[in-house]
């Protein structure tokens, strides 16, 4: 069945993002989902790990957590160029920094501020568009089924025609990757849908008492599918209007 978001199952051509709106949108998705960044310095074998801890669109800046291992500090202090790679549900994003980071703290933890990259490479390897949920139009999902003694609710971070990512304010959810929750409810601004979902990824962050879950919609009927796609399309249009251009 053809849909609004059916662009084929093969890899999509990479895109070069250059506008602040496009770059900001991708950085915020990495921040909101606490996704790891793989970092390398040209000519050096060691690979490093970090996270985005803040994004400042007004100043076109992002803050990175301390690099692990910390041997990267001397390279950063010397202003060495480094390359960053991250993955967002089938999309590979990479960019480079050619500047010395500005040391600061956020909530008492050290970080380094950098200017937005001039360009970002965005390679979508599957055809499904994933849209961030608008903060002032929240959406949520309640997971329920035979595998859960009590339902678990969380707010949507983003959604596509095939699944969604969810933030849950508890580290004790009893959710398991690969488990099916067949009596779940997706609550969107324009209404709710009853559907079955599969937990693909479950990330428990004990120190923050939260859980982040990647869900895939499971064997939804045609009416439900069209309602989900309509919502994703609405979010896509809202994002373009707010940012004053194309999201990707």
Number of domains: 2
Count the helices. How many? 3
N/C terminus separation: 25 Å
Helix content: 10-25%
Q: Stretches where pLDDT falls below 50 for ≥5 residues? A: 1-11
Computed CA radius of gyration, to the nearest angstrom: 19 Å
Biggest sheet record: 6 strands, antiparallel
The CATH topology of the largest domain turns out to be Thrombin, subunit H
CATH top-level class of the largest domain: Mainly Beta
Report the mean per-residue pLDDT as an integer. Answer: 86
By CATH, the architecture of the largest domain is named: Beta Barrel
Order of helices and strands: EHEEEEHEEEEEEEEEEEEH
**Can you count the beta strands?**
17
Structural class label: alpha+beta
What does this protein structure show overall?
The chain is globular, with a radius of gyration of 19 Å. The chain folds into two domains: 15-124, Roll (Pnp Oxidase, Chain A), CATH 2.30.110; 130-243, Beta Barrel (Thrombin, subunit H), CATH 2.40.10.220. With 248 residues, it is an alpha+beta fold. It contains three helices and 17 strands. It is 16% helix and 43% strand. The model is unreliable at 1-11 (pLDDT under 50). The protein has helices at 20-32, 73-77, 222-243; strands at residues 15-17, 37-40, 47-50, 52-56, 61-65, 82-88, 91-97, 102-106, 109-115, 120-124, 130-132, 140-143, 152-160, 163-168, 180-188, 191-205, 210-218. The strands form three sheets. Strands 1-10-7-6-2-3 form a six-stranded antiparallel beta sheet, covered by helices on one side. It has a six-stranded antiparallel β-barrel with strand order 12-13-14-17-16-15.
């Amino acid at each position: 069945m053809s849909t609004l978001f059916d662009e084929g199952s093969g890899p999509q051509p990479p895109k070069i993002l250059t506008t602040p709106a496009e770059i900001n949108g991708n950085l915020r998705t990495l921040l909101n989902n606490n996704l790891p960044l793989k970092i390398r310095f040209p000519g050096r074998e060691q690979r490093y790990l970090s996270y985005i801890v803040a994004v400042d669109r007004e100043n076109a800046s992002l803050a990175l957590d301390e690099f692990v291992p910390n041997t990267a500090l001397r390279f950063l202090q010397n202003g060495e160029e480094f390359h960053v790679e991250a993955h967002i549900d089938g999309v590979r994003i990479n960019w480079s920094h050619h500047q010395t980071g500005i040391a600061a703290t956020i909530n008492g933890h050290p970080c380094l501020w950098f200017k937005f990259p001039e360009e970002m490479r965005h390679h979508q390897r599957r055809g499904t568009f994933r849209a961030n949920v608008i903060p002032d139009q929240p959406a949520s999902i309640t997971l329920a089924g035979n595998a859960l003694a009590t339902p678990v609710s969380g707010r949507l971070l983003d959604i596509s025609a095939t699944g969604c990512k969810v933030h849950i304010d508890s580290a004790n959810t009893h959710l398991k990757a690969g488990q099916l929750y067949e009596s779940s409810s997706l609550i969107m601004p324009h209404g709710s849908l009853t559907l079955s979902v599969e937990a693909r990824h479950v990330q428990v962050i004990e120190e923050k008492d939260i859980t982040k879950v990647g869900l895939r919609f499971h064997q939804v009927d045609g009416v439900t599918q069209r309602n989900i796609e309509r919502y994703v399309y609405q979010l896509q249009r809202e994002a373009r209007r707010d940012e004053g251009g194309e999201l990707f």
